[in-house]
Amino acid sequence: MKYIFVTGGVVSSLGKGLASASIGTLLEHRGLKVTIQKFDPYLNVDPGTMSPYQHGEVYVLNDGAETDLDLGHYERFTNCVLTRFNNLTSGQVFENVIKKERRGDYLGKTVQFIPHVTDEIKARIHDLSSMNPEVDVIITEIGGTVGDIEGHLFLEALRQFSLEVGRENVCFIHVTLLPLIRAAGEIKTKPTQQSVAKLREIGIQPDIIICRTEHDLDEDNRRKIAMFCNVEKKNVVAFRDVKHTIYECPLDLRRDKIDRLVVDNLGIDSPTPDLQGWEDFVDRLIKPKHTVNIAVAGKYIELQDAYKSIYESLAIAGADHHTKVNIVRVDSESIEEHGAQNSIGEVDGILIPGGFGDRGIEGKIQAAHYARTMRIPYLGICLGMQVATIEFARNVCGLEGADTTECRKDTPHPVICLQEEQKGVEDMGATMRLGASESNLLAGTMAAELYGGANVISERHRHRYEFNPDYLDQFQDAGMVIASTSVREGLVEIIELSDHPFYLGAQFHPEFQSMPNKPHPLFSGFVKAALDAKVAVPA
After folding, report:
1. pLDDT single digits (tens) 175-217
2. Is 356 exposed, middle or buried (0-12, 13-18, 19+ CB in 10 A)?
3. Which CATH superfamily is domain 2-174+246-280 in?
4. Which of 133, 242, 267, 513 has the most crowded Cβ, counting Cβ within 10 A?
C-alpha cells in the first residue's frame, strides 16, 4: 500500500480538496485504484450540526455519515464510494480516546496526546488500508493550515506513520499560495518558504510542492522555491486558477505531470493516463451549444458552498445535453417580500434544495406554486419536495392551513410531519434518516422513465420530516402521482404531476450521486425539460 498526504500552508481555501481529488483522478486514469480521506482538525464530531455559514453543505455518504463537502469532490472526481471511515475529525479522535480510557483499555496508563491521540489518528489510516485491500494508493487530505494549533497532532501522527510504513511508501504534497503583489508586479515565494519551514520544524519534508497561483510559474520562482524548500525543481508544480470549471483542475495539474512525479516518488510502475473521456466532458462544459436559466431558491443562497453538490449536479447534467446552466440565485425570503414572479422572473426551470427551519419557507411555497401554475419545470429536493406537497395541499386539495409540523406544530392539516422514530429525539447530530435506502418505482411514471425503467432505486437521505400517509388518498384523488415509496417503510419518496411538463419532488438527495459523464437521471431530466421549455417558447 502507498500513501499520499496533502497538507496546506499560508491560508485556507487553497484548493487542497480539489488538488487531492485531481490527483486521484489522474492516478485512476493510470489504472491505479485509489481511495481518499479527509482529516478535519475541528472538535465537532462531524459537520452535521454546523451552520452552512461556517462549513458549507453537509455531504452525506451511503452509510449515512455526514461529512465534509470535500468528500463530494472525491466521489465526483474518482470512482471511490466512500464511507464514514474516509472522514476523521478531532472530535471523533478525542471521543474514541476518552471512551477507551473509561473502559480501561489503556490499563491504567496516563493518557497523553503522544502516543494515545496520535495512535488513534494512525489507526484510522491502517483501518482504511485493511478495509480496502484492493486499493493501490490512499490519499489523505489534512484540513486547515500548517501552524494551526489544532492540526499539530495530525501532522505529528503523519510524521510517525511515514517512519513506521517506510518513507519510500509515502509521498508528502504541500499546497501553498504564491501571491501576486500587483503594485510591484511580482509573485512572492516567501509565504511558501515559511509554510514549508514550519512543516519541516514538525519533521515533515514535502516531496512535491503545489503552488496555487493566478498565473503560470516561471523558472526563476521554481528554482527559488526548490532551493529554499529542499525539493527538486521538477517537483515544484503550478496549480493555476482555472478559467471555466473545477473539472479543468486535473488537466491543469497534468501540465506539470504531477501524476508522473507521484508514481515516480512512490516507485509505482503505471502507464501514461488516457484523459480523452475527461477532456470530452470538460469540452462539453466549456463549449455548450445551448443555455438555460435555472432559478435556485433557498435561504443560504449567498453562500456558494451551501448548495455545492446542487450546482455541480446541474452543471454535469447540462454537459450531458451540451447545455450551459446559468444559476439564478433567489433568496426565498425575498420571494416572501416581493412575490415569486418579481423575485424569480422568467426562467427555464425552478429548483428548491433541501434545508431546515421556517425561515423563507413561505417563499419556497410561493416558488412551487409559481412553477406549477406557470408550467415551469420544477425539481424539489428534500424540503423542496415538502413545500411542493404543502402548496398542492393548500391550493389543489383545498386543505386550508396545510403545513409542516416543523414550522407550525398546530397546523390543522399536517401534510408533512415528523417520522414516528424521530419523536422524542433530542440530540441534533446523526439522528435523522441518513444514508442510502432503497425505494420502489411505480411503472409508467415519469420518474420510472427517467431511471430507465428500473423497478428499485437506491438514494441517499438526510431529513426528519416525511409526507404524512394519512393524506395520501386526498392527494392522489386531486391528481398527484406517488411515483416512489421506500421498500422498508413505505414512505413517500417521489411525487410528480402527470399534467405538467416536469414537476417532480424527491425526498432524498440525488445531488450526492451525480458524477461527470454519469449525471443523475433526475437532474438530467430536469435540465432537458428546461431546455425543451425554452425551445418551445417563441422568440
Report:
1. 999 998 887 778 899 999 999 999 999 999 999 999 999 888 8
2. middle
3. P-loop containing nucleotide triphosphate hydrolases (3.40.50.300)
4. 513
CATH of domain 288-536: 3.40.50.880
The answer to whether residue 539 scores a pLDDT higher than 50 is no
- Asked if residues 102 and 46 have their Cβ atoms less than 8 Å apart, the reply is no
Q: Identify the active-site residue in 80, 229, 249, 382.
A: 382
Give which of 435, 410, 406, 408 is closest to 423, Cα–Cα.
Answer: 406
Question: Does the CA dihedral 373-524-75-259 come out positive or negative?
Answer: negative
Active site residue 382: yes
> The whole model's pTM is what?
0.93
Cα separation, 363 vs 382, in Å, equals: 16
Tell me the domain boundaries of the chain. Answer: 2-174+246-280, 288-536
- Assess whether pLDDT exceeds 60 at residue 284: yes
Residues 6+ away with beta carbon under 8 Å from 263: 27, 30, 32, 269, 270
**CB of 321 within 8 A of CB of 527?**
yes
Q: Where are the beta strands (DSSP E) in 202-249?
A: 208-213, 236-240
Kindly name the residue from 55, 73, 509, 520 that is annotated as catalytic.
509
Query: What pLDDT is recorded for position 429?
Result: 58
pLDDT higher than 60, residue 347: yes
State how beta strands 480-486 and 433-441 pair.
antiparallel
pLDDT for 486 beyond 50: yes
Does the pLDDT value for residue 294 go beyond 80?
A: yes
Please list, residue by residue across 467-506, b when 16 or more beta carbons sit within 10 angstroms of its beta carbon and e when fewer do.
bbeebbebbeeeebbbbbbbeebebbbbbbbeebbbbbbb
Confidence check: pLDDT of 147 > 90:
no
Q: Crossing angle of helices 190-202/219-229, nearest 10°?
A: 20
pLDDT at residue 283, rounded to an integer: 97
Would you give the DSSP letter of residue 272? P
Strand partners, 329: 296
Instruction: Encode 460-500 in three state secondary structure.
Output: EEEECEEECHHHHHHHHHCCEEEEEEECCCCCEEEEEECCC
Asked if 138 contacts 2 with a C-beta cutoff of 8 angstroms, the reply is yes
